[in-house]
Specification:
Largest sheet: 6 strands, parallel
Helix content: 25-40%
Strand content: 15-25%
Structural class: alpha/beta
CATH architecture: 3-Layer(aba) Sandwich
CATH superfamily: Isochorismatase-like
Length: 174
């Protein structure tokens, strides 16, 4: 069985920066502990990546809060998490979900009889759910799991709604 971990957007701006929440701050140690359970060659992480013209983009018009601009402190992965991720594959993404990540996981798991892909990170209700659905679409027979103790949403209510959505799309929430 091939078991992979995907760590979504554990960046400063989502933890204690422009879009940070106390719930995001509270999961950092859980995320580090989860990362330490996996071999480094079985870990992928994403980094939300925007440019200086973010407010001119469609996303910027819907969410007019500048965040995760490449090269800024807010774009960087949280220091504790970054240390745990040393040696992992990091994928920069310009939008909620990463088709590139789904493709990488597909090619990583070709020929495997059983595949489990666990997702953790931020934000449950935007980027975690988007990537879970993309991965499940690309690898329909993979067991896609989400650990809610290692995720946080924009609000606790939207976090719970996203977990329900992922369950409905045949992801395992445990």
């Amino acid at each position: 069985m091939k078991k992979l971990l995907v760590v979504i957007d554990m960046q400063n701006d989502f933890i204690d920066g422009a879009l940070g929440t106390k719930e995001a701050e509270a999961i950092v140690d859980n995320v580090v502990a989860k990362i330490q359970e996996y071999p480094k060659d079985c870990i992928y992480a994403t980094r939300d990546t925007h440019t200086a013209d973010y407010l001119e983009t469609q996303e910027g018009k819907f969410l007019p809060v500048v965040h995760c601009v490449e090269g800024t402190k807010g774009w960087e992965i949280n220091e504790k998490v970054a240390k745990a991720l040393e040696g992992a594959v990091i994928v920069n993404k310009g939008t909620f979900g990463s088709a590139e990540l789904a493709d990488m996981l597909y090619f990583e798991t070709i020929g495997q009889d059983e595949v489990e892909i666990e997702l953790i990170g931020l934000c449950t209700d935007i980027c975690v759910v988007s990537n879970a659905i993309l991965i499940k679409t690309k690898l329909p027979e993979a067991k896609v799991t989400v650990d809610p103790s290692c995720c946080a949403g924009v609000t606790p209510e939207s976090h719970n709604a996203a977990l329900q959505t992922m369950k409905m799309c045949q992801c395992v929430v445990e």
